[in-house]
Amino acid sequence: MSTEEYLRKIDEVIAQGPYTDTWDSLCGHPTPVWYEKGKFGIFIHWGVYSVPAFGDEWYPRNMYRKGSRENLHHVETYGTLDKFGYKDFIPMFRGEKFDPVQWAELFQEAGAKFVVPVAEHHDGFKMYASELSSWNAAEMGPEKDVLGQLKAEIENRGMVLGASSHRAENYWFFNGAREIPEADVNDPQYAELYGAAAGPTRDHSNIYDNTPTQEHMEKWLVHTCELIDKYHPKLIFFDWWIQQYAWKPYLRKFAAYYYNRAVQWGEEVAIDSKFDAYVHGSAVKDLERGQLDHITPDLWQNDTSVARNSWGYTIGNDYKKTSDIILDLVDVVSKNGALLLNVGPKSDGTIPEEDANILREIGRWMKVNGEAIYGTKYWKVFGEGPTVVPEGHFTDTYEKNFTSEDIRFTSKGNHIYAIVLHWPEDGEIHIRSLGNDMKLLKSSICDVELLGTDLHPRFFRNEALDISCGRIIEPGDMPVVLKITIE
């Protein structure tokens, strides 16, 4: 199907409704129940950029930027850009050990409820079978329909499949090569992979400057609609550059098409977007490596990674502690958020042992404490304590030294979960939000249970709810959950 034919098909689906490509209509689309209940998902950055495994997943851009660390490394390791361009990594990207069964089993063991592979990153190489471009993993490199194989195994295990598209950024991702005449990006025969390699000439965060061409935006729309038509993902994740003002009509069209197709499928779906690309209420707000400092009644998401330095696999990744990731998960959920945690597989298709160990440790914590996460709602306040969690993008790597006074709340039925972010040595907990002034809780407390034990500790409701657990748990970095039953 040509671009023009697909555009006509998109218009026909939108005309059938029930959603139109207007903000008023799109803001009436509900957030999926599976998303609100699931809370925790796995993001996967796997692509050709895992072959050089240097710097980060922006290696393909930076290798064409004269004098950059990646550029110098590339020339020294692989040769000059007229001899070895990014396309030449594709035959080396074999994925010979890729096992979708093992991946899905690991994600299930971690306690994930949804999985979001990057279907296409900024580099223009698709990780799925496409009729619109031969630059895809089914025809080149691994010669496997990676997304399709993952879909089968993920859904067979009761998890939800999503997909991430970063195709918008392909417009300018390789533009550094325009200053290197001999670079392969400048050869028209590779234009389908490298894109326009045009602007932005200035700040690519400027939402009014550096407008992409109509051709690029129409192809983006068609390629993204092909992705949903072939694989029926229940979540589409977009990276940041689509907040650029010129994209707005195309964003509306995509959402109307996607939401209408989901009605035809009988499925609940969602779009994740950053900043104000989508009008508030028409999609789920996403903060990259970021958190909120307050509760919001609308579901939001923190997408982050097991590594601080990169989303894709690189040699020598700087990994976070598992406890820090779980603490972020708890804080996010207490504020009505979900956590999308990224792993970066190696080019051979194996998930690094460091990534896998983190996921297994999260899974062990979830087996004990998952009832305080899954299917919960936020409580009247997200928590209490002296430690400030800063709001905004790129804030979740800040050092946070939580104390035993730092507590987060979730709720379900007649239970309040008080999640203590740093367990005290003496096992004495004081929860001021549940004190006898009854400002926040006017119900009676009839039981307190320490999850993971048989202990129902003594408690007294004074200025604070004072709970005496003794030394049954050793102090550590992992949060501990108190299940409080009210009448």
Summarize the topology.
Elements lengths: L2 H14 L6 H4 L6 H6 L1 E5 L14 H4 L6 H10 L21 H11 L3 E7 L25 H11 L3 E6 L25 H4 L19 H18 L3 E4 L9 H18 L4 E5 L9 E5 L11 E6 L16 H13 L2 E7 L9 H17 L7 E8 L22 E6 L2 E6 L7 E4 L13 E6 L7 E4 L3 E4 L11 E7 L1
Parallel strand pairs: 1-2, 1-8, 2-3, 3-4, 4-5, 5-6, 6-7, 7-8
Antiparallel strand pairs: 9-10, 10-11, 11-16, 12-15, 13-16, 14-15
Helix pairs in contact: 1-9, 1-10, 6-7, 6-12, 9-10, 11-12
What does this 3D model show about the protein?
This protein is of the alpha/beta class and 487 residues long. Helices cover 27% and strands 18% of the residues. Strand 2 (114-120), helix 7 (146-156) and strand 3 form a beta-alpha-beta unit. Helix 9 (214-231) runs parallel beside helix 10 (248-265). The strands form three sheets. An eight-stranded parallel β-barrel has the order 1-2-3-4-5-6-7-8. The protein has a five-stranded antiparallel sheet with strand order 9-10-11-16-13, with helices on one face. The model has no long low-confidence stretch (mean pLDDT 96). The protein has two domains: 3-372, TIM Barrel (Alpha-Beta Barrel), CATH 3.20.20.80; 378-486, Immunoglobulin-like. The chain has helices at residues 3-16, 23-26, 33-38, 59-62, 69-78, 100-110, 146-156, 191-194, 214-231, 248-265, 322-334, 353-369; strands at residues 40-44, 114-120, 160-165, 235-238, 270-274, 284-288, 300-305, 337-343, 377-384, 407-412, 415-420, 428-431, 445-450, 458-461, 465-468, 480-486. It has twelve helices and 16 strands. It is globular, with a radius of gyration of 24 Å. The longest helix has 18 residues, at 214-231.
